[in-house]
Design goal:
Number of strands of chain B: 11
Number of helices of chain B: 0
Largest sheet of chain B: 7 strands, mixed
Strand content of chain A: 35-45%
Helix content of chain B: under 10%
Helix content of chain A: under 10%
Low-confidence stretches of chain A: none
Mean pLDDT of chain A: 90
Mean pLDDT of chain B: 93
Low-confidence stretches of chain B: none
Shape of chain B: globular
Oligomer: heterodimer
């Protein structure tokens, strides 16, 4: 079965420290992977997708098919990065729903 | 352009009642998906509609149903409400179904069943 695992419920770092939010997935095909972010009192929004290979707000994520991982990284955390982060995959084809991990709450302390 | 609009924002219902939630997608988006968000289970997929057809359904009981209109607006209905249905219900729209489409989410409808 398709599954997305985010092993950390809460990740707390100090401002300026590197951040890595872990995401592992299980899927037999070639999924499309996403990171969504939900800031306090705001709607869930797309942060980045693996096919774009882009950096958004300093965050990057590389798809590692061998390790079935899609970890989110940022070299220097900022206080405004504090939010809930959700890793998700989409199966594609005619069954295009997102499968989400349980989320990791990132807290960046001053 | 306007984002995904969900109405109402908040609802309080009694056990056994039914409820209808509404979602207006971004103009031009034809795919609408619904998700249930709870502290315990996280975000769980309910169903997806594309061009008025249900394309995919999650693992929820038949009390949860939905539909999509010709203007792509979607409604979901929950009948015979249970306490466990209390959740934030999110709607997401995208241009197409399947791969390639980033989904845009609404602010959600907070349903409380008492």
């Amino acid at each position: 079965a398709q599954r997305v695992t985010q092993p950390e419920k809460l990740l707390s770092v100090f401002k300026g420290a590197p951040v890595e939010l872990k995401c592992n997935y299980s899927y037999s095909g070639s999924p499309e992977l996403f990171w969504y972010v939900q800031y306090s009192r705001q709607r869930l929004q797309l942060l980045l997708r693996h096919i774009s290979r882009e950096s958004i707000k300093g965050f990057t994520a590389d798809l590692n098919k061998g390790e079935t991982s899609f970890h989110l990284k940022k070299p220097f955390a900022q206080e405004e990065d504090s939010a809930m982060y959700y890793c998700a995959l989409i199966k594609g084809g005619s069954q295009g729903n997102l499968i989400f991990g349980k989320g990791t709450k990132l807290s960046v302390k001053p | 352009k306007a984002g995904v609009t969900q109405t109402p924002r908040y609802l309080i219902k009694t056990r056994g009642q039914q409820v209808t939630l509404s979602c207006s997608p971004i103009s031009g988006h034809r795919s609408v998906s619904w998700y249930q968000q709870t502290p315990g289970q996280g975000l769980q997929f309910l169903f997806e509609y594309f061009s008025e057809t249900q394309r995919n359904k999650g693992n929820f009981p038949g009390r949860f149903s939905g539909r999509q209109f010709s203007n792509s607006r979607s409604e979901m209905n929950v009948s015979t409400l249970e306490l466990g249905d209390s959740a934030l219900y999110l709607c997401a729209s995208s241009l197409a179904t399947g791969t390639g489409g980033g989904y845009t989410f609404g602010s959600g409808t907070r349903l409380t069943v008492v």
